[in-house]
Amino acid sequence: MKIVVYGEPTAQGRPRFSTASGFARAYDPEKSRDAKDYIRLAAAEQMRGHEPIDGALALSVMVYRSTPKSMSGKKVALAESGEIRPTTKPDLDNYVKLIKDALKSICWKDDSQIVEYVPPFGKYYSSKPRIEITVLPLGGDSDG
To answer: Which DSSP category does 74 fall into?
Structure first.
């Protein structure tokens, strides 16, 4: 199953903390919360009629960030072909963390079902920013 979410990718932000009635509470920053809602909505639309997958899964994630406007024409061509890749923050694992949280209960029942990351996997530049997510059932029985 392949899901494409168009728009500038957002990574999972650091949790924020507040206290209420003397108890500390952690919560997602608004930008992360909004990005998860958007990914959930896009995935639910593309998953219409399909139940969340049960059992072991492999995951492929391609994050396509906007090509920087400061790049020269030559560098833009290299970036679009994948020869120049984003090495700036945010980290790839923060994108993946947000995606896994957003797709729980929509594409799979629990993140623990993801037992493997498979290629293609990575951060790239594109004139069409998006996230491409491929979920592959691995078959066999789950152990729990």
So the answer is: H
d(CA 119, CA 112): 19
**Peptide bond before 120: cis, by omega within 30 degrees of 0?**
yes
Instruction: Locate the domains of the chain by residue range.
Output: 2-137
Task: Please give the mean pLDDT across all residues of the chain.
Answer: 89
Grouping H, G, I as helix, E, B as strand and the rest as coil, residue 27 is strand
pLDDT tens by residue, 104-120: 999 999 999 999 999 99
* CATH code for residues 2-137: 3.30.1330.70
Kindly report the backbone phi and psi dihedral angles of residue 98, in degrees, each rounded to the nearest multiple of 5, phi listed first: -65, -45
Query: Which ranges of 26-144 does DSSP label H, i.e. alpha helix?
Result: 30-46, 73-80, 92-103
Tell me which amino acid residue 130 is: R
Q: What is the pLDDT of residues 93-102, one digit of tens each?
A: 999 999 999 9
